[in-house]
Amino acid sequence: MPRFEPRGAAALTDSSVALMTELNLILLGPPGAGKGTQATRLVDDFKVAYVATGDILRAAVDQGTDLGRQAKEFMAAGELVPDEVIIGVILERIEEPDCADGFLLDGFPRNIEQADALDDALGKRDRVLSGALLIDVPDEEVVKRISGRRLCQKAGHVYNIFSNKPKHDDMCDIDGSRLIQREDDSEETVRNRLRVYNEMTAPLEGFYDERGILKRFDGTRTETEVHDHIRATIATLRLEDEL
Ligand code: AP5
């Protein structure tokens, strides 16, 4: 695995000035498992680039780009955007300079074809995945959580009316903007997203387990407990890699 001089100075302590190993991670889990919630914390902990496929696609839809036009209907229905539309976008994204020291992929890969494409692309650059982090949450909890999710219109800060309420109804604590629901968060669409996850994405658990890099986390614990567990696991992964 390539070695590199870490650029994220804030990630370092005095005793970690030695060369560190590239940290390339993927987050797996059903809709509403808490992938985005945990990603925000983990990129801060480990100073890796955050690549969230759903965010990239939603921005493209809002901006009316070609990518957005091709993705829009699939997303609204809770179906996967076709591989030929999404794979190239993500593989190009992880070639960008900010991903050179490591990345956290949220929402990619989502089927075996995407996982194979990622493996091939990384292999060509002599890079490997460090871990596949699976956040497990049962289906009925997913439906409840997603019905309670609210996002701030300005910056996408995430709340939940059951577990993480804003101080004032419908207003972001951080920037005061209005809180909205995602278009694909209706119960009908969430149930379809779950079906798609179980059919298309869940097989990746076996795919990465066979490669020895799958790590499971109980996503029904509190956000802080899930974060502590994932952070400790990544820290151990990194230590093992450096030995
Ligand atoms: P995407 O945006 O990736 O959606 P998703 O995978 O369905 O995941 P979510 O963003 O809904 O949930 P999350 O796990 O991030 O949960 P969150 O942290 O917000 O994809 C959207 C669409 O884009 C897809 O349907 C598809 O059409 C398309 N797409 C994307 N990638 C693609 C690809 N690779 N190929 C093809 N198509 C693709 O948390 C949810 C809520 O729960 C929040 O309110 C939060 O506050 C709360 N919460 C979080 N953790 C906890 C906890 N521990 N306890 C209690 N509540 C919690």
CATH topology name of the domain at 3-48 and 101-137 and 197-242: Rossmann fold
The assigned structural class equals: alpha/beta
- What proportion of the residues is helical, as a percent range? 40-55%
Ligand list:
BIS(adenosine)-5'-pentaphosphate
Main sheet specs: 5 strands, parallel
| Spatial extent as radius of gyration | 18 Å
Q: Tell me the quaternary state.
A: single chain
CATH superfamily of the domain at 3-48 and 101-137 and 197-242: P-loop containing nucleotide triphosphate hydrolases
Mean pLDDT: 91
Strand order of the largest sheet: 4-5-3-6-10
Give a structural overview.
- This protein has 243 residues and is of the alpha/beta class.
- Helix content is 46%, strand content 16%.
- It has a domain at 3-48 and 101-137 and 197-242: Rossmann fold, CATH 3.40.50.300.
- The chain has helices spanning 35-46, 53-63, 66-77, 83-93, 112-124, 139-148, 187-201, 203-210, 223-242; strands spanning 3-4, 20-21, 23-28, 49-52, 102-106, 131-136, 149-152, 158-160, 179-180, 214-218.
- The strands form three sheets. It has a five-stranded parallel beta sheet with strand order 4-5-3-6-10, sandwiched between helices.
- The structure holds BIS(adenosine)-5'-pentaphosphate.
- Residues 29, 31-37, 53-54, 57, 74-75, 78-81, 86, 107-108, 110, 114, 145, 148-149, 158-160, 163-164, 184, 193, 219, 222-223, 226 line the site of BIS(adenosine)-5'-pentaphosphate.
Record keyword descriptors for this entry.
243 residues, alpha/beta, Rossmann fold, five-stranded parallel sheet, three-stranded antiparallel sheet, 9 helices, 10 strands, 46% helix, globular, binds BIS(adenosine)-5'-pentaphosphate
